[in-house]
Every structure is written in C-alpha cells, then in structure tokens.
Amino acid sequence: APRKESTGKKATTAAGPSPTNGAIYHTVKRGETLWEISRQYSGVSVSNITTLNPGMNPSRLDIGQKVRVK
Q1: How wide is the angle at C-alpha 54 spanned by C-alphas 32 and 61, nearest 5°?
Q2: Which residues make Cβ contacts (< 8 Å) with residue 38, sequence separation at least 6?
Q3: What whole-number distance in Å separates Cα of residue 49 and Cα of residue 69?
Q4: Is 50 exposed, middle or buried (0-12, 13-18, 19+ CB in 10 A)?
Q5: 36 vs 49: CA distance, rounded Å
Q6: H helices within 1-70, ranges in order?
Q7: Measured between alpha carbons, how far is 29 from 17 in angstroms, rounded to an integer?
Q8: CA gap 17, 19 in Å, rounded
Q9: Which pTM was predicted?
Q10: How much is the average pLDDT of 1-21?
C-alpha cells in the first residue's frame, strides 16, 4: 500500500476567485445588477449579498467594484 508522507505543511486548495477566510468576491461588470450576480452563484440571494456588503448601495454598482457573494 502506498504511504502518505507528512511534510509538516497543511495542504492548500484553490477555492474559486479570491478566497479570503472562505469569502468569495465578484467583480462587477458593465450593466450587471445584484440580481444577475446572485444568479451566478448557487444558493446566493440579493439579500445575502446586501447583508455581506454593509454600506453598499445596491442600486448603484460601479464597474470593477468587488462585491462579497459568500
């Protein structure tokens, strides 16, 4: 049977764009709405996005703005 060797390092896996403590961010593109962004991520609603982004104006998204979705 093959042996697993321990290197003393934790295994890291790439988990989507910009993983920060499990958070996932979406970069706003021209013409996108929160509803359209929420449809791109499984289990994400507009209210989830607004809760994760306090102070964000949901009716005025800027191109290139990073919005936390998870």
Answers
A1: 20
A2: 44, 45, 46, 48, 49, 69
A3: 5
A4: middle
A5: 12
A6: 34-39, 46-52
A7: 15
A8: 6
A9: 0.66
A10: 51
The pLDDT value recorded for residue 21 is: 75
Residue type, 38: S
SS3 20: strand
**How is the chain split among helix, strand and coil, in percent rounded to 5?**
20, 10, 70
Q: What is the mean pLDDT of residues 6-32?
A: 67
User: What residue has token string 């359209």?
Assistant: 36
Please, how many CA atoms are within 13 Å of residue 21, restricted to the half-sphere of its CB? 1
Note whether 38 and 52 are within 8 A (CB). Answer: no
Count Cβ atoms below 10 Å from residue 67 Cβ, excluding itself. Answer: 21
CA atoms of 36 and 45, how far apart (whole Å)? 10
Q: With left for phi above 0 and alpha for psi between -120 and 50, is residue 16 left, alpha or beta? A: left
